[in-house]
Every structure is written in structure tokens, then in C-alpha cells.
Amino acid sequence: MTDNRLRVVFSDESSATEIEAILSAVSGHIVKGPSLQGVYEVQIENQKGTALARKDLMVRDAITLLRRNPSVLFVDLVQ
User: pTM above 0.90?
Assistant: First the structure.
């Protein structure tokens, strides 16, 4: 896993402030969206010089944390 972009869908009840807080917790920010279907494209940031294995771990950790959040309906890697 080398791509740091995720597709994320939040519940309709999620406010912009809540979405920002959720993404901040995983070092993410919106780069695209929402689409008509409510899908956001989110970039998970990494530090310069971070080893490839660590970047992959950061993305996997972000996916795990987002999936545990009740305001997140869907999350997966951008293909």
C-alpha cells in the first residue's frame, strides 16, 4: 500500500466541524469532494523522509481509526 489517498463517506448528520476533527485525528485533509454521492477524497499526510513501510502503516492506521468512528459510513483506498 503506497497510496495515501482514501475515499470516505460521512453520515449526513456530520457537520463540517466534526468532519474536520475526524480527519485531523488521522492527519488527513480533503482534497476532493464531496461528490454527488457524498464521497470525499482524503489525503493522509506523512512526514518527509518517512520510510515507505511507515507510510503504509500510517494509512492502515488511519483506515482502522476511521472505520471505528460511527460518523464514518465508508472508507477505502482510492484505486
Answer: no
